[in-house]
Fold this sequence. Notes:
Strand 1, helix 1 (18-33) and strand 2 form a beta-alpha-beta unit. The chain contains eight helices and four strands, in the order βαβααααααββα. It is α+β, with helices and mostly antiparallel strands. Helix 3 crosses helix 6 (153-160) and helix 5 (139-148) runs antiparallel to helix 6. The chain has a four-stranded mixed beta sheet with strand order 2-1-3-4.
Amino acid sequence: MDTSEREEITVYSDYVCPFCYLGRQSLAQYQERRESELVVDWRPFDLRSHKRGPDGEIDRTVDDGKDEDYYEQAREGVRRLQEKYDVEMTLDIAEDVDSLDAQVASFSVREQYDYETWLAFDVAIFEALWTEGRDVGEEAVLVELAEDVGIDGEDVRAALDDETVRTAVTEQFERAQRAGITGVPTFAYDGHAARGAVPPEQLERLVEGV
């Protein structure tokens, strides 16, 4: 479906961010009260970049300044928003999952398929991680999720092996940094932005100015 005449909201996010999943639930609730759909202009953001070594593996020993107190506060925030938005989640935090391959696959699907197909894949990745506890960094999981929404699994495998696609995704990460994005989710619309899993009412004010 052509999205050129539909309104867009830019969303910076990373699949391993629980608040990104919750923010998308808030956006979905806002969408339900709108007469016309907002297209999600997804911009990938890489929360694991500082821990990813030259071989692509995550180095768990890298000090990112996030201690157990930080993670407990994050878990409390996730649980609070789960209740507020009436969302069920299997995980509160996904420390052991690297979303880079998921973002590469999602970026490639967005380039090759129509918006609705990409959106279904995007939602499936989020839900597989946060409601089923699956490792969306695994190729087999991504291929299965893709095929479930009508995407050729070979397209996903090819994207994951394509350094050109990976370079394009890295450039997206760098563009987000140049745009001043320091945390996710960040929702942007018409020169204004809201950061965090903000409630539907705040997204309404962002988009409609009311």
